[in-house]
Write a structure and sequence with these properties.
By secondary structure, this protein is mainly alpha-helical. The protein has 2 domains: 72 residues; 49 residues. The longest helix is centred in the C-terminal third of the chain and has 29 residues.
Amino acid sequence: MNNLSSTTKQKYEGSTGNTRLRLVAAAILATICLLGLIEIYSATKGSSLAGMHMRQVRWLVIGFVAMFALSRLDYHLILDQAPILYLIGVTSLWPSCWSATLVWCQTLDSNPWRISSGVRTGQIT
């Protein structure tokens, strides 16, 4: 009952057999990105942030180019370097974690109603 010719099957399946699935996934991803872009445009239209959707478009293009470039790599190359890449990722998070902790501590120090051991401290003004 399959009406597709063998050349059409080869066109959709490709050498790996999941080219069609990749196209469907890319179409879903593009749809989600487009919906997000429409939401950013409608949320910032007429405000001081008008034009932010163009910034989002640039990042979407950069992301799609990077995605397709990385998809051409053999994943075994990345898999062999996984422990090193993991350590680089975790190490790169430390500065942002440390700075967020410092900002949070400064906020607590400047707040007269900070909570210490479950008891509110500070003066009522």
